[in-house]
Design a protein that fits this description.
By secondary structure, the protein is mostly helical. It has helices spanning 16-35, 50-67, 71-92, 98-116, 124-130, 133-137, 142-153, 156-166, 177-189, 192-213, 216-233, 240-270, 274-306, 309-316, 318-322, 324-339, 352-376, 381-390.
Length: 392
């Protein structure tokens, strides 16, 4: 069944609130990746100063609470939304964008490999693979797309794993560990080209298997389809009806988050089977992170359109959002140099608080570059290259 998407394209070539959302997600990812040392999990010994130890714990927990599983989810939503804009624009011009989008994903896979050479655990390769679901559902009705996306967001992969364990089988969420350990060992040697090769092989394997083990291979395309529906409905437009929708979405997300988060903490006490408890815990964790992401997205949209924070978001987040691909790859290159043994090797020396300080400096540098670049050009360098390669 096909459907004609509802008008959602404004006269402006950009939707400001989408740039702000994307920019906030990029900033969150930069902060989170920095305290993780860009997946180089080597940290200094416990701080001798109790205050510093407390600060490190507070920084780590706060950033993971705010951005872990949420920033990537916002990216997934906006990925599907952008697909809709491109598909709809091509449809109005009498062209079918689906084949071109498949090629666009091939190009994105290349960008992902470039990023993965520096940052093991990057997400662009995953997006280039699961994003191929979008042209398959592009002509389905809203009802069908919503049903498929809703099924994916329920976490059917975890439900199958729980059933498997209860039937006497095995369904571990630690399948990525051998590749992760091999990658960490090679990075620890401090040789640049060996690190690059390990990131592209062991690092990519642990990233993909981790995404499978923790449900992102199912959740990400479901979120992309949801973003496509947001585009069809024109929900990012500044209208009173849309503001009411996002306000309700934020409230529902917040109300759902607290009981789900509390339930996740009680699962080990309630479920004796370790395999079942592990998978149920991951499933409920996925749900409470999704609920908080809905709250974040709704709150940002409402604040952007209805408060004076719009100006601050436009100044700080939008330049980064407009150059999100360039910023994402650039932070991986800079971050790996700062934290990895082949570079400055600060990963083994800095705790979470100091790493957050490094992240602030990195953001200042990248933000300055983005603002200066956009004064002269409309797109970031990698965005321009991606667009040119898409339409080659």
């Amino acid at each position: 069944m096909s459907t004609t998407p509802k008008p959602a394209l404004s006269n402006s070539p950009r939707v400001d609130v989408v740039d702000a959302l994307r920019g906030i997600a990029v900033i969150g990812i930069l902060l989170l990746h920095s305290v993780e040392h860009f997946n180089y999990y080597r940290f200094p010994e416990d701080a001798s100063c109790r205050l510093l130890a407390f600060a490190d714990t507070a920084v780590w927990d706060s950033l993971f609470f705010t951005f872990s599983g949420k920033a990537y989810a916002i990216f997934s939503l906006l990925f599907g939304y952008t697909f809709f804009l491109q598909y709809e624009r091509a449809r109005r011009e009498g062209r079918d964008f689906r084949g071109r989008f498949v090629w666009r994903m091939v190009v994105l896979f290349g960008f992902g490999c470039l990023n993965a050479a520096f940052f093991p655990g990057e997400v662009l390769v995953l997006f280039s693979l699961v994003g191929l679901v979008l042209p398959l559902v592009a002509r389905l009705s809203d009802r069908w797309v919503l049903a498929i996306a809703g099924f994916g967001l329920l976490g059917p992969d975890f439900i199958v794993r729980v059933a498997t364990v209860m039937a006497g089988g095995e369904a571990s969420t630690e399948g990525f560990v051998p590749w992760w350990q091999a990658n960490m060992d090679t990075l620890g040697e401090g040789r640049f080209w060996s690190s690059v090769w390990s990131n592209l092989t062991d690092g990519q394997m642990f990233s993909i298997v981790w995404a499978r083990d923790f449900g992102r291979m199912v959740q990400a395309p479901a979120l992309m389809m949801t973003g496509m529906l947001i585009g069809r409905r024109g929900l990012f437009a500044d209208t009173s009806e849309n503001i009411r929708f996002w306000l309700k979405a934020a409230l529902v997300g917040l109300v759902c988050f607290f009981p789900l988060r509390g339930f996740a903490d009680m699962i080990p006490e309630w479920i004796g089977n370790a395999g079942v408890a592990d998978n149920v815990g991951q499933l409920v964790g996925q749900w409470h992170k999704l609920a908080f992401m809905v709250f974040m997205t709704g709150a940002i949209v409402v604040l952007f359109h209805r408060t004076r924070l719009r100006g601050a978001m436009m100044r700080v987040a939008s330049p980064v959002g407009r150059m999100s691909l360039t910023m994402y790859v650039a932070q991986s290159i800079v971050g790996s140099f700062v934290f990895f043994p082949w570079g400055l090797d600060l990963g083994a020396r800095l705790g979470s608080t100091a790493s957050l300080g490094v992240a602030v400096v990195m953001f200042a540098i990248l933000y300055t570059f983005a603002t200066l670049w956009l004064r002269r050009w409309r797109q970031g360098p990698l965005e321009w290259l991606w667009r040119k390669a898409t339409w080659i």
